[in-house]
Prior knowledge:
Elements: H1 2-5, E1 10-16, E2 20-22, E3 27-29, E4 35-42, E5 48-51, H2 65-82, H3 86-99, H4 117-148, H5 152-175, H6 186-196, H7 203-218, H8 225-234, H9 247-250
Antiparallel strand pairs: 1-4, 2-3, 4-5
Helix pairs in contact: 2-4, 5-7, 6-7
Amino acid sequence: MLLRTVGVPTRYVNGFLGGEWNAVGQHVTVRQNRAHAWVEAYLGEFGWMRVDATPAIRPPGRMNKWRQLQDSLEFFWGRWVVGYDLGRQIDIVRDLGKGVGVPAGAPSETGARWPGKRVVGLVAILLMAGGITAAGWRRRRRRRREQAGGSAVLGGLTHQAVGRLYRRCLERLSDLGLPRRPAETPREYADRLSAAAADLQGLPGFSRLTDVYVQARFGRKQIDEAVVNELARQVAILGRPGSEARPGRAA
């Protein structure tokens, strides 16, 4: 939009940024998380040039041999089984039968000769085994990721608990006449409260809650459940009768 306002033709482009070479299957694997969008500008004799304001990211790591084999099996299953109709699958089986020297069976109604039953059964077993193996590898990889990051369920629950506790505190402070401003970061808001309402009960606990909230939401840090419970106890007195909030000084 900025380029068009000064008369430079631009266009919006969707695509994928990079991939991983699979030496086993001799193909490039481009995953969904590599999807990207950018802008191209027309610069006269130079033609369309990429104008991408996205920060550079680290290139994907190389797959080891075992991961390449797994990726090749998944690629084969998706291309030759899931992505093709029955007629194409029959052609594959027929070609395999020719390769191992098995004669074709009786001709079908269309004139094509069907592969032998033994070949069909063998290929069906192989494809089924490959699908079961690929599914098992995916489940194992997902389980390892969960174990590497600790308890995924507990981490998600504590992350949500920190967010709920922080939002309750915001509502309580807003009722006291100390709302958080729209363009104010959590840390800026806590610092302003510390300067304008230093005698507010529970303010030290809210300041610590702010630090934990920022770490959990923006730093993806796993928060221990005991920490959340302790923070809830510290901010429980926030806004109770007897605290002296001075809205005029916080404005």
